[in-house]
Predict the structure.
Amino acid sequence: MKHIHFILIFLLAASPFVYAGGEHGAGKEPLVSSWTSQHLNKVNELLANEKYVKAREKLDSLLSSLKGDKYETGLANQAYAYSYALQEDYKTAILYFEKALPSLEASFNQTQKTRYDLGQLYMAEEHYEKAIRLLEAWLKHTEKKSAQVHILLGNAYAQVGKNKQAIPHVRKAIQRRKEIGKEPQEPWYQLLLSLYLDIDNYQASVKLLPEMITLFPKTDIYWKQLGAMHLQLKDFKQGAAALEIAWQRGLLKKEAEVLRLAYLLLHLETPDKAARLLVSSLDSQYIESNEKHWRLLSDAWLLARETDKAVSALVKAANYADSGNLNERVARILVDQGEWQKAQDQLRLALDKGDLKHPGNCYLLLGIAATELDQTDQARKAFTQASKHKKTKKSATQWLKLLDQSV
């Protein structure tokens, strides 16, 4: 927030001692001599024409003639401040405003105006505590509804880490702008959202984000943030709905984000959505093509009762595996489907890769598949190998007896 946008309300068409931002009828204003008024009006003309050096020379002449008049000296220093501010020399402008402010106390209007303008310059120069003191004083003495002052104070409090004090000001700034029918300021909403998040106020964030989505539909990231806030509140259904929209808008491109949504959809028992998400992400390379992710896709398709797609995904997962365990798992699914030849192919791949947790199971299935394919010799060899393993010895022996009986 270093370069906070601010608007100096000094009107070059008017003399510096004209009311601009205080309260009408706040009291009798001090008189200004005709001599001083003429000089200040001439200074205004010079500033309007960007003749800053000549304007300050005119002010030098004016000051030398004032002979200590406190209020008129204050107006001259105020004019000096504007001359430097218009040249974006804010540090020097601040010095002159600070010098002018005590001298203008006889005028409520000029005091308020100087508080307002100096407060803005303090913000521009990152003197946030000073800005808070001046702008709060301005608010205390006015009935004017200023969105600008509230947003400045909101920023200032945020900068010094006083988020709870910042929030009411930002909310008032937004409300004031609504009341006068002005276009909403997206940075103001973003500031309010960041303040809510800083104090972990997820309930307020969830209420604010839909409004931001409506007002600023081109800023797609709000869908992503809304999903995250719902998840913080354990509202998984609404969180998934928002994140799905974020996905559709192309916002979820990081692997962790995509996988988070996939697991969430599985948790919500919508495996078909999870599977489609994973397919698209694997195709677009948002998530790495590896054993783990293809296995996850296979699980999703299985839960969605899309067995063929589950097998296809598991085959791809097996291609990345060093051991044959996944090929054996594919074979089991194929066996359940009665796809004996395909099952046999996967079992052979499993045995070729090796490093199996239970190789006896693989040989036993291979024998069963060979039996169904009327490959008696191959079945006998497979059952013989299965009988060498403690876990499958009994079943393999029974199969061998059946083969002997069928001869």
Summary: The domain at 253-320 is CATH 1.25.40 (Serine Threonine Protein Phosphatase 5, Tetratricopeptide repeat). The chain has 21 helices and no strands. Confidence is low (pLDDT under 50) at residues 1-25. Residues 108-124 form the longest helix (17 residues).
